[in-house]
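User: Here's a protein and a ligand (FHN). What would the complex look like?
Assistant: Let me lay out the input and then the predicted complex.
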Amino acid sequence: MKTAELLAVIFLGIVVLSCAPPEPPPQMVTETQEQHDARMQWWREARFGMFIHWGLYAIPAGEWKGETSHAEWVRETAQIPLEEYDRFVPRFNPVQFNAAEWARMAKDAGMKYVVITSKHHDGFCLFDSKETDFDVMSSPFKRDILKELSDACAKEGLKMCWYHSIMDWHHPDYLPRRTWEEKDRPADGANLDRYVAEYLKPQLKELTSNYGKIGVLWFDGEWESTWNEDRGRDLYQYVRSLQPDIIINNRVSSGRSGMAGLTAEGAFAGDFGTPEQQVPATGLPGVDWESCITMNDHWGFNKYDNNWKSSRELIQMLADIASKGGNLLLNVGPTADGLFPPESVERLRAIGAWMKVNGEAIYGTKASPFKSLPWGRCTQKAQDGKVKLYLHVFDWPASRELTVPGLLSDPGNAYVLADAQKSPLRVSRDGNDVTIEVPKGAPDPVNSIVVLELKEEPSVLQTAEFGRAGMADGIEISLTSKVAGDDYKVRYTTNGSNPTPGSPELTGPVTLRYPSVFKGRAFYKNTAFGEITTIEIPLSGGKPVTLTNPPSDKYKAGGAATLTDGLFGSSEYTDGMWLGFEQTDLDAVVDLGEPAKIKSITLTYLVSQGAWIFAPTQIDYAVSDDGKTFRNVGSVKKDPRSWRDEKGVNKFSTDLTGTRARYIRVAAKNIGVCPDGHAAKGGKAWLFVDEISIR
Ligand code: FHN
């Protein structure tokens, strides 16, 4: 609230305080599945939106005292005291800002909605707020940017959406303070409840009252210890009470699983998941999600960042995301002058040119019925009593034969989407596959769309997929993919040879003991289909494990047995396959049941710096005959300063010859805290481990 107005209100408040009705609690907004689907419909059909990160941080443009890796976090990452940061306000004057141009560029790029930072973590507001002076009206610009942009977006038929940070590094009542500024900016008297009731909510009321119908409230900054599910649920209900049709992301609450962005199990508030700078490995049936991605490496403008993704990569990323049933929110970080960087403009134009011809293969489509395709992706849409498969061909076949593997449905017409005449292409069946004879040259150098019409929902052979569970004396393997119909069988071998139509059929779970190698494959009408799955049963397969320290409740997978179940975690730390240790070490002992000759020991661990998951700083292997006296047989130390080196799933093995033992101990040391140079320096670090493989 402006200072002058605040004084007036205080005076008025004294007069009328006794009868000022309290803000009514938000009515619980409940809805049926049909109502939910109706509310989400425009968003699901849109598939593609623009993210805009803009604010005072565009002025330093990434640089502070010679360090050039900053961006929208510059006040934190450069530890700029509040008073010094506030001095950006009189410098904020983006005289070249033109809302109509921004809206037109989003529209021409094929985007259907625009999400702009009404307030980022630094607390500066790009709109005329009656609740604070720390807003654009206190700058020389003195124009309500959000008003101008919402009007321009309305004219272009784009949904206007707000990014709004719960975390606020400027407001005196927000907690916690930044650790480095606690001395200079003590938290005495700060009150988070008051921040929510008398600032956060009143601003959200402004944002949902003064700018017309808002498509999405994109919350962020929800991860600090002071925010929780109760607060998130209350805020969700509050915003929905202001605009019942608004859509709210899962960062309103505390259910988001880190940068993987999806909502953890449980009734957390939020309408869609928000993977950040990543695309889920597979589609997520029944889950609404949107990947937010930068064009280079920064959200806010950094004039030194020239690591731009190519237009090709962005166009294929959009197809990949749509083929998995998600949305792409593609970011632009405007300059302090109010301009989109030329590199962003160039990419938006290239995407727009592709969307102008092929947008039908993105808008309103659903996920691919295929697990994977060798030449590209697929989206699908039911239309005019048919189902259209949009085949996104990244690698155009020189042979002119485009094979669609495992499509059992009778194929109808096929044509190139870019061909205005829709000249029919020759379609034939070759066993389990459908082949389309396509023109010689690819219609588009990046992603050419071939449409294949079907009379009904596609019936597609699913490649055989298998689950594994650790058993007392081995590993139990079972079929997890949906395999239907008499003609469709899964066959396997346990001697390492490839399955043939004469191999045994997998009709139920099979338990395999060491040593064996399981190979499984699907057959349709006795013709092999899809990949061969190979599962090696190590000596440790299914053997019992004891842990000195328990894993975190949040990341405990199947408990200690996870370490010898033969199942390997993916690079998504939230895939439920990893044991997570927060600031504690792994100390595990595997009991082989009897002394055995050991050739190697391997530990699988995950590194995901964005989720504060780091490599162990030391791994030690030891063996014992009695489970009490151990002798070290392998060790490695890792320099904590090399934490940036590894990403994703890592394995560390130690080879042994002639060692006999019954008990094997694996100890991995947690780095403890997020290291120097990490955005969360000093925060509690995680160690994620899976699969101890002993051979
Ligand atoms: O801290 C923010 C970051 O600055 C940016 O806004 C991204 C965009 O999704 N969200 C947070 C990091 O997860």
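Summary: The chain has four domains: 33-361, 376-454, 466-537, 545-694.
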